[in-house]
Amino acid sequence: MAGVKIDGKVIAQSVKDRVKKAVLELKTQDINPCLATILVGENPASATYVKNKHIACEEVGIITKDHKLASNITQMELNKIIDNLNTDNSVHGILVQLPLPEQLDEFATTSRISPLKDVDGLTPHNAGLLAMKKAALVACTPSGVMEMFDFHKIDLEGKNVVLINRSNLVGKPLYHLLLEKNATVITCHSKTKNITEFCKSADIIITAVGDRNKFTLTPEMIKDGAIVIDVAISRFQEKLVGDSDYDKIIQKASFATPVPGGVGPMTVAMLLKNTITAASLSSQIGR
Ligand code: NAP
């Protein structure tokens, strides 16, 4: 029997509904949640991502401030814009859309954002807090995956989880979040030997390679009833795909996410949730 689809659109909507209520509540305290976005250059994919984030904010009542910057901006100029947003009391969240043009340093740029306004959860401060189980603002895609487990009441305690990714954006934050839920986590990457053996013994596989020429998760690699979360998005043979073929995987898995319509919508929903958290934090510290 085929497994259950983990529908990112439905779960993201449930998060957005909660955010909408939280926005109304914050407004009664004279707090108007506001997200500032910074887009450098003309990358069409990045422009679309930022536009979709603005639309999502509008849907739930979050104000946006849009900063479109020339592709040849210097690091110093960009830093100054971030510094101004850091001290602007009407702004609660700051998002710098990645990737940045070559002359700019992504680590220096994200590190410049005030940890209290770091709605992407990518500053070293917030990454460190996450490792110490103290984070308020967690990277959006990993927290979106955790929201999917919550929604389907999937208990992670004692489960063997195989993570196929070790990036700062996906694998590392997920590792800490899963550990917090008492899962046993194995992290695989491009240098891991015998990935199939790890996958075959996993109760849950979270895969985020994003290149079908390098890696595909096939039904033969998972055990019956495993849960498969496919974070990857890439183009392959003219199609938008994950690391696995949902239609095939779901025949063997107990739960699986499709691509598109799985983890993707969760990332935007969690950005909205983080903006609300940041706005609440600002009221708690009396700004
Ligand atoms: P990344 O930094 O390139 O990470 C890719 C990971 O895959 C790395 O840890 C890499 O290992 C590993 N890898 C590469 N080849 C492998 C192989 N043959 N076997 C096993 N592991 C291999 O990318 P990312 O930013 O984490 O994103 C990963 C994917 O998730 C992309 O498709 C991206 O578009 C997608 N994504 C989706 C969302 C969403 O909202 N759905 C959000 C973020 C990312 P090494 O560390 O050894 O290089």
Characteristic key phrases:
287 residues; alpha/beta; Rossmann fold; 10 helices; 11 strands; binds NADP nicotinamide-adenine-dinucleotide phosphate
Summarize the structure.
With 287 residues, the protein is of the alpha/beta class. It has helices at 8-28, 44-60, 75-87, 106-112, 124-131, 140-151, 171-180, 195-200, 246-249, 263-284, and strands spanning 4-5, 34-40, 63-69, 93-96, 160-164, 184-188, 204-207, 227-230, 234-236, 239-241, 255-256.
**Tally of individual helices:** 10
> In the residues, how many domains can be counted?
2
Summing up helix and strand content along with how strands pair, one would put the structural category as alpha/beta
User: Could you tell me how far the N terminus lies from the C terminus, measured between alpha carbons in angstroms?
Assistant: 55 Å
The averaged pLDDT comes out at 97
Mind telling me the C-alpha Rg?
A: 19 Å
The molecules bound to the chains, other than polymers, are:
NADP nicotinamide-adenine-dinucleotide phosphate
